[in-house]
Amino acid sequence: MEPDVLVIGGGNAALCAALMAREAGASVLLLEAAPRAWRGGNSSHTRNLRCMHDAPQDVLVEAYPEEEFWQDLLKVTGGLTDEALARLVIRHSAGCRPWMRRHGVHFQPPLSGALHVARTNAFFMGGGKALVNAYYRSAEALGVRVRYEAPVERIEMAGGRFVAAHCAGERITARTCVVAAGGFESNRAWLGEAWGVNARGERPAENFLIRGTRFNQGVVLRELLDVHGAERTGDPTQAHMVAIDARAPLYDGGICTRIDCVSLGVVVNREGERFYDEGEDFWPKRYAIWGRLVAQQPGQIGWSIIDSQAIGRFMPPVFPGVQADTLPALAEQLGLPVLRFVQTLQDYNAACRPGRFDHTVLDDCRTEGLAPAKTHWARPIARPPFYGYALKPGVTFTYLGLKTDDTAAARFAGAASPNLFVAGEMMAGNVLGKGYTAGVGMSIGTAFGRIAGANAARAAAGRAPGTLGALIEAEQAATQGNRHVHA
Fold first, then answer.
1. What is the pairing mode between strands 176-179 and 5-8?
2. Where are the beta strands (DSSP E) in 222-268?
3. InterPro entries this protein is in (predicted)?
């Protein structure tokens, strides 16, 4: 039977769309490219959702008002963001948790020592995999049909209107469609095409690792952009790109491969030289710039260097660091030029100015007369043993996507599609032109997944798409008419 709403994708945004459409009374078919065991895309590797709130709320402490959230986003994107859509996401983040709970998502109480994160981010109990599993259970209980191992190979469009999707030799028609199939981060050929050859004659993308799913090949994205002429947003080289352990697997390394001690020490390239301010801002706001910084270095590799003072102050990675009792011995073990490395560390140590070290605030421990400076948390690396962690760029998701508006409709030749909507990574570039701040990807996916699903159901019923207000109306109706609780 032809569904009212076809959802292409199987992660957070796709599931939010499917649930919202089904709650609105539409029949829904969801196509997930991955096998059931690997369902959920990059959402399986997530941990939290960035949330606006004006006062303490359940698992959130203190307050994180709209303007502060917006300023944080403005800073990391350098202004490359659509303010109207960004503020839509921010406002939506304030009230989405009750809906998430109704679909079986549980949140973790604030942990001791992590209160500065609990002010801005709500953490999922059991992480992203538990969230994804809860949504699938709820979707199946509500009657959403799910097909696994069902990658879409081709899309049929007619004048900006969705007609059909081709999957495993089958032509699937639907009244409306939500595309939430992720970016192209797993497509190494496309990454190579986007990054090309640098001034050193290197092909940087050949050294990239993929933090998340191997199934985000960008087939649907490329089809809509290059074949059907959907309006685009974002730079194909911009991505959520983190500096991760160089020993991580090619795909699906996830959060545990991240190296979180960068702000507690220094980072050098293969010449043994520093290249950026390691103490620029709090780690949750700055961790996602380091993948791109390392990607710009020779060989697309770097090393995070700390001493024993830093141990116990960061989330330990899955692999132990290289350890030595002297800096020359550490350089030798890491394969770095010993004299240059030691000189870099000596120059840094000499430039550190005394202050009151406090990793929970922007403290006054800084360097003086050093380029690049380290503006916070600068302490001499002088207490053995010393540790080194090799870093490579780890791509989480790409920012090239479909241009949209506050109805989540895809756009063709200046007009909104009447029945094709977009959510998640496929449109995140509207809000994230560059940079990242922890948890905002889930905020974007949840907001636009829910808007896309609600509007797909409305369009299938012959009603005009609505904005965030329409979503809230649909949610209130669902709360009154479809009260269901999942253990």
1. parallel
2. 232-233, 239-245, 266-268
3. CobZ, FAD-dep_OxRdtase_2_FAD-bd, FAD-oxidoreductase_2, FAD/NAD-bd_sf, Succ_DH/fumarate_Rdtase_cat_sf
The structure's pTM equals 0.92
Tokens 């270095």, residue? 297
C-alpha 458/C-alpha 16 separation (Å) is 15
Domain range list for the chain: 5-183+218-236+399-481, 241-394
Vertex 245: Cα angle to 241 and 247 (nearest 5): 125
Q: What is the largest CA-CA distance in the chain?
A: 72
Burial class (CB in 10 A: 0-12, 13-18, 19+), 460: buried
101-143 tens-digit pLDDT: 999 999 999 876 555 678 999 999 999 999 999 999 999 999 9
Cite the DSSP H helix spans in 152-297: 188-195, 219-222, 283-286, 290-295
- What DSSP line would sit under 281-337, residue for residue? S-HHHHGGGHHHHHHTSGGG-EEEEEEGGGTTSSPPPSSPPEEESSHHHHHHHHT--
123: DSSP letter: E
In degrees, rounded to 5, the angle at the alpha carbon of residue 215 between the alpha carbons of residues 212 and 221 is 105
How far is residue 38's CA from residue 256's CA, in Å, rounded to a whole number? 17
Residue-wise pLDDT tens digits, 177-222: 999 999 999 999 999 999 999 999 999 999 999 999 999 999 999 9
Does domain 241-394 sit in CATH 3.90.700.10?
Answer: yes
5-183+218-236+399-481 maps to which CATH number?
3.50.50.60
- 313 Cβ partners below 8 Å, 6+ apart? 261, 264, 359
Residue 239, strand partner residues: 398
The predicted pLDDT at position 473 comes to: 61
